[in-house]
Specification:
Elements (H helix, E strand, L loop, with lengths): L17 H15 L3 E8 L2 E9 L11 E3 L4 H6 L6 E2 L12 H6 L3 E8 L5 E9 L8 H47 L1 H20 L4 H13 L9 H4 L8 H6 L2 H10 L8 H5 L21 H15 L11 H10 L7 H12 L3
Antiparallel strand pairs: 1-2, 1-6, 2-3, 4-5, 5-6
Helix pairs in contact: 1-4, 4-5, 5-6, 5-11, 5-13, 6-11
Length: about 350
Amino acid sequence: MAREAPTFEEELPLDGSREIVEEALALARGHLEMDLAWLAEFRGGRTTFRAIDVADDSWDVARDASVEAPATYCHRVLTGALPSVIPDARADEAVRDLAITTQLDIGAYVGVPLVLGDGSVYGTFCCLHHAERPDLGARDVRFLEVLARLVARELDRRRLELRSRRLAIRDAGVRAMLLALDARDAYTGEHSEAVVELAIGVGRRLGLAGDELLDVEQVALVHDIGKVGVPDAILRKDGPLAGPELVLMRRHPIIGAEIVAGVPELTHLAPAVRAEHERWDGGGYPDGLAAEAIPVASRIVLACDSFHAMVSDRPYRRAMDLEQAVLELVRHRGTQFWPEAADALLLEVGTRI
């Protein structure tokens, strides 16, 4: 029975791994005495031939050529519609009438899924021959499976390397923004660092991990970055804001989202930065979002942001004591604050009293 393939949908360039992949393809083609070997990527409904080792120019296939996935043997192997070995393609009713059989003059095929470490399927590792090959069998499939696992490990290594690099760039971008804000207002920079600590603790208590927890951390770091667009007279005023001043201050989530959206590695954080002052009951700003429409990172950061602001001295008021701030958090649970975030924050704060 055909099955849906759990495909890997990220972009994973082979730069840095191409030599190893091509050596594996050459080994596969030579050992099986085939005409062509390729690594096929299956993504976005298309099959792309990412690496090729070919005996001669009789194959009309170019590296990075792409075709609609259902038209290929590769896709059908991934979904279970074809076996891994087709000794005589021209006599096999499952493939003899496919356009690709005629176009490439395929006589025999061996292909296996290439499965990454997280269980997702990158594509297939395949060999083809113009002539029929009745000698092909299970032993050849096992050999390809071994090579495919070796290639998968290399792609996993490359994936981890690229991910680490992207995270380093993201972190550098966040820190640069924070330094720019700290230069304008020392309180805001220190406040952001404190909010990060609270938000990470709350996120963990809510079961977040990996990228979700990283997003919470980075939204907490840059949640006030839009204040770089607020005039100093408003930002440092030693009294409550009113009228036009309040309107300008309430634009800082919009400005912050625009700044973050301009950094390619941080663009995905922009909606959460914009929504950081939205209330659970819909009474926040700038868009009046409510409940589940508010990004999770925004809900968490709002509670932590508000709590730390309450227990901090400001030019226009003295800090609340911890007990007062806890009572305020409880009082606004379910109105201003997401109940689950408020509960997790109360537990987190309880460990620090």
